[in-house]
Design a protein that fits this description.
The structure is a homotetramer.
Chain A lengths: L6 H4 L5 H21 L6 H7 L4 H7 L3 H24 L6 H16 L2 H14 L3 H25 L5 H16 L2 H4 L9 H18 L17
Helix pairs in contact in A: 2-3, 2-5, 3-4, 5-8, 6-8, 6-11, 7-8, 8-9, 9-11
Chain C binds a DNA duplex (21 and 21 nucleotides) through helix 2 and helix 4.
Chain lengths: ~220, ~220, ~220, ~220
Amino acid sequence: MRDLNLSPPLDGHKSAKGRSTKSIILKAALEIFIEHGYGEFSIQKVAARCSLSRGNVSYHYPTRDDLLHGMVDAVLQGYIDDFDDIAKDAGLSAAEKFVSIIDMIMSDLGTKETSIFFPELWALSNHNAYALAEMNKMYQRARAHLIELIGAINPALNKTDRELVGVFISASMEGHTPFVGPGKEWEKSLPKLTNIAAYSFLHLAKSVTKNDIAAMRKGLKLAS
Amino acid sequence: MRDLNLSPPLDGHKSAKGRSTKSIILKAALEIFIEHGYGEFSIQKVAARCSLSRGNVSYHYPTRDDLLHGMVDAVLQGYIDDFDDIAKDAGLSAAEKFVSIIDMIMSDLGTKETSIFFPELWALSNHNAYALAEMNKMYQRARAHLIELIGAINPALNKTDRELVGVFISASMEGHTPFVGPGKEWEKSLPKLTNIAAYSFLHLAKSVTKNDIAAMRKGLKLAS
Amino acid sequence: MRDLNLSPPLDGHKSAKGRSTKSIILKAALEIFIEHGYGEFSIQKVAARCSLSRGNVSYHYPTRDDLLHGMVDAVLQGYIDDFDDIAKDAGLSAAEKFVSIIDMIMSDLGTKETSIFFPELWALSNHNAYALAEMNKMYQRARAHLIELIGAINPALNKTDRELVGVFISASMEGHTPFVGPGKEWEKSLPKLTNIAAYSFLHLAKSVTKNDIAAMRKGLKLAS
Amino acid sequence: MRDLNLSPPLDGHKSAKGRSTKSIILKAALEIFIEHGYGEFSIQKVAARCSLSRGNVSYHYPTRDDLLHGMVDAVLQGYIDDFDDIAKDAGLSAAEKFVSIIDMIMSDLGTKETSIFFPELWALSNHNAYALAEMNKMYQRARAHLIELIGAINPALNKTDRELVGVFISASMEGHTPFVGPGKEWEKSLPKLTNIAAYSFLHLAKSVTKNDIAAMRKGLKLAS
DNA sequence: AATGAATGAGCGTTCATTCAT
DNA sequence: TATGAATGAACGCTCATTCAT
């Protein structure tokens, strides 16, 4: 998992002491969220984890949702920062950058934090509008770079098709999360799955032009 | 989402009355799980939903986990039943069956129940060993048919590689869940994403043989 | 203060055990309300007072308001019962019954419970619609008998004027509450104030006809 | 409701800034007290209402009771000031002044602030010695003028009887508070109730002499 | 098989108060 | 004079669980 980006909670807050307390709370909040899941995510557990009083945690994050949102923001902002860094890598071809993003994302899925955090986030997004909005924002940023590179790899694709292919590739990678994390059934196979992903997605990005996506199935050779 | 298979809870119970009460409870439990998520899944809400007393729900499912497990079992067993039905479709080529499974799974992702249930299940599986085991069992069954068909489509693949490709395809489809459910950002694009999936996964199944997966990256043409 | 009428909470509830627990809770609730006032009226204090668990009190009265309303109902219903009893006293003239109600109400003001309960109720009624409605209902019943007797004493009064005189007399008596309770400044003067009330209100009931209330001030002799 | 008299909190404080801050706080405190009642009267709500920090409010009024008492003082002192003004009205007969006080008090009962503040004060006085003392002080001043005028209207009354009649009249008027405020059941009837009060209380003041209060009931004509 | 009663724990939240700055 | 930080207590409420009937 990426490092937390704690700059948002720093903004708009007064003393250095308050800022440092807030970042301590957010780190503890993430730990509790990872360890216990959203269902048992509580202000009390977070306070105990960072040895602060419940009152103080409530002072900085008045409601449970405030705390949850602050933590989710910090995590997702960390990812957004990383995506932007990748785009800056110079001297690489579009296909190389494309594969490099795939490597980065797939390898991240193998970390404990990521393999727990994101399924919780997806579940949360079904019942929490704020989490949904932040999740969408992050994935849009994550796809933006993929989509740009797909355009470079396959200039014939129009914008809509580039987007669709980007969504397909991004979602497909995310789908591995519940299966390749530490202790999961396919943990050991993550490198090979990453190879398959690189191969399959690169082929898709290069070849998809030849077929109009809407009519794609007609071109499939299904003969037995 | 598939229909619940309520047969397991029927087993081992005496009267028809008890059996029907259990199935009423499980249906209500699924509704609450879908509506509120695991975090607010409670015996009380389930009892209220099906107009039974808390005591009675506790009588049939003594603990919260018993109820949760019963409900998860019923849902996942419903999926397993469906997978087995597909395999029976005669007169279709392997590739046609393969695409038909892809269609079935992808279209199911568009239902409200599925788009909520499975992310909750993935999150749950990180903190609940029972849910993890049941989830693995179900996905194994789901992949079994895919893997068999991959073998038929591409007989050159050894068992390990067939499995890996099957995991990749299955996981990739699951990954669309948080993005294509009702009200989600890419809800409308589900048909096109399904086309891309059919095209991409069929190509993968056919072509992956030519490359040894472990060394697959060397064959990638990454020149700019 | 009148005895509690606990029949309403008895209705609609299941076991004898539950009924007796409810009445124990209501008695304790009234004691806490009297001792601490609404501002410090809490489920916890009530539970402690009657040696029940907080959980059990919450079981019978799920919310603080439910408990408050149950207690207020029981108290006010006790008053309504008493008013109805008075009306049944046979063999008394209208004026005698009228004075007897005044005596009853004024003497009740001298009890500790009444002198605390009603000011709390008045305060409550400004912020709690339920309390307001119950209070109005009780005072309507209290006035009903007064108004009937005023009509008997002074048949020339029309309905509106009888009502107004009834409201004036009832409100005037209530106004003594904060001043004549135990420990209050005019506690010792309650008998004399009751005499004044009987004298003044009886004169009002008899004489008010002669003046149209709307034009009453013109008849006042204000010369110095 | 009368205007606040904020002079007491001005005393004993150093800078003009501190004085103005205190008066801002007291105004906000009264607003919160009126809107929410004593039960939900809190330093936090007062601070939020006047956009000051909790710390600052606590600086000026270290405890919740300090703030409450400061606010009660300011309100009651405002009433005392008004009563003294009335007494100064020259050129009026005693009976005219008497009726004018009745008018003033009764019309004040029709304001939102008064109809809420005083029931809260009465309730408070049962559990708060300071509020009781301040309330008594205010009512003594309110009655003082009434009692003086009763003596002028009816010189035959001795001091004790004048006081009793004054208490009766004052308490009777206060008793209308819960019934004639804005939104209350008899709001519209306040003018007529005021007429009845003027008529009834003036008659009482004039005629009470003829009967010894202690033996007053014997003179009542109760025949049917 | 079903229900109501009861308990005790945990949680989110509000709050009065204290303190350092 | 003013403010933010911090604490600890209390409260309303929900809940899982147990038990007697």
